[in-house]
Amino acid sequence: MDEVQVVVAHSERATLRVGDVFLKVDADQARIDAEVEAMALAPVPTPEVLWRKPPVLAIAAVPGTTLGRLGGPSTGLPAAWAAAGAAIRKLHEAPLPPGVGRAGRGVGELAAELDAECALLVTNGLLPADLVTRNRQVAEAALRPWAPVFTHGDLQIAHVFVEDDQVTGIIDWSEAGRGDALYDLATFTLGHEEHLDDVLAGYGGDIDLEVIRGWWAVRSLLAVRWLTEHGFDPFLPGCEVDVLRSRM
Fold it and tell me: Are 47 and 22 in contact (CB under 8 A)?
């Protein structure tokens, strides 16, 4: 029998790997439904769905490797990062999917959530007030109207697989929906700012870098407390807190 590897596990969901099969266990059936639908609609390589038996979704592993991880070293030549940018552009140019994902919340709703989270970060002593205040200012650039596109919604670097400078698979589509294109670009380059130019070279177009930086601040501010409460460490080198510190 193949060894069972715990890929990620917390109170909301867990992902296990057994050989070349990933088993995603999620009590939220709507989230699994959204993931399967998004993978079927996305015009980029996605994992093959092997079977579903709620609350479990079984998908096949995709070939290739990631370009790194948050808090770790990045790999790959500029061409590989550009290929990822081109794949993200292809997704964003696809017909809009049903539903609104993480990247599609209204500006007012997101601003209110961010303000509440910033207050908790300071009140609970997780982050110093000056760090939170500065990044809340940076985050304001992201809080503007945007034209919705087909977004992945959680396009972490660990979710994009590349081989021979070609994207071979994009995984974890549970947050997909209509949202802001620059949120996906910011999520993919979070903690790896040195590769932003390569990604944008593949993506093409005129991109507002202040908005990208704004989304880095938004995502990091909203993640710190959740990560801490679910057994992860956003204070590790290169992770969310270091991203926030880089804006000081």
Answer: yes
Q: Give the list of residues 6+ apart from residue 49 with CB closer than 8 angstroms, or none.
A: 36, 39, 57, 58, 59
Cα separation, 198 vs 237, in Å, equals 23
Q: Residue 248 — pLDDT band, cuts 50, 70, 90?
A: confident
Look at the pTM and tell me if it is higher than 0.90: yes
Residue 35 burial (C-beta neighbours within 10 Å; 0-12, 13-18, 19+): buried
Q: What is the pLDDT of residue 1?
A: 54
CB 58 within 8 A of CB 50: yes
Torsion of CA 178, 204, 93, 191, to 10 degrees: -30
Which CATH code fits 63-245? Answer: 3.90.1200.10
Enter the tokens of residue 83: 């290929």
